[in-house]
Amino acid sequence: MSEINLTAAFIMGLFGSGHCIVMCGGIASSLQLAGRDKNALLLALCYNFGRLASYALAGALVASFGAAFASRNNVLALSLGALSGLFIILLGLYVMRVGATLQWFERIGKSLIWQHIVGLNRYLLPINSYPKALAYGALWGWLPCGLVYSALIWTLSAPNAAYGAALMVAFALGTFPLMLLSAQLANKVAHFINNLTVRLILGNVFIWYGVYLLIIATNKLVHYSN
């Protein structure tokens, strides 16, 4: 679907990276202290590429699931597009912090996935090597997060697993700039992004993009039904 593109996924990650600092910023900052004899930037890169790998894997799995069902039914395929638009709207409200729009989804992820793997982090501490940082990032890539889950729902409309993975890679790369900044500078940028006015602007960007996706999918559904 042309309306689901890699640039939009990158921008989604970039605009939502203030939320990433809240969720993972402490981990990223601690990497600078964990391996004092290691290059802090390389440790952070390893952590973030581990996170990217988990996002790509999840995107491929979700896209495969969506494509398998969509290939059997055109109405279902278009319905998945509408669902993607709906979740982008919910993401906009989530960014604006208007009600508990995606917290329920995070709780599901915590129950089904996160609580079963979080204990593995004890085998990776202290993070005093690059492979450990990579593995730690891959583990924390499964942290329940409404922003990531919204992007994953988006991949349901991807035509195949490879494109689903590519969408999540683009999304992850969008979060890299803020996550790779020094702790002090990242906190300043995050403070700006989390400002009420900025959150309202970014939230509206997501909402209107979700409405755009929803209108396109609904229009195609109507034409197909006729």
UniProtKB/TrEMBL annotation:
UniProt xrefs under Pfam families: DsbD_2 (PF13386)
Source taxon at top rank: Bacteria
Record key words, sorted: Membrane, Transmembrane, Transmembrane helix
Keyword Transmembrane: yes
Annotated ranges, domain Urease accessory protein UreH-like transmembrane: 8-212
Spans traversing the lipid bilayer: 6-28, 40-69, 75-96, 133-156, 162-186, 198-217
Record's protein name: Sulfite exporter TauE/SafE family protein
Source organism: Pseudoalteromonas fenneropenaei
Taxonomic lineage: Bacteria, Pseudomonadati, Pseudomonadota, Gammaproteobacteria, Alteromonadales
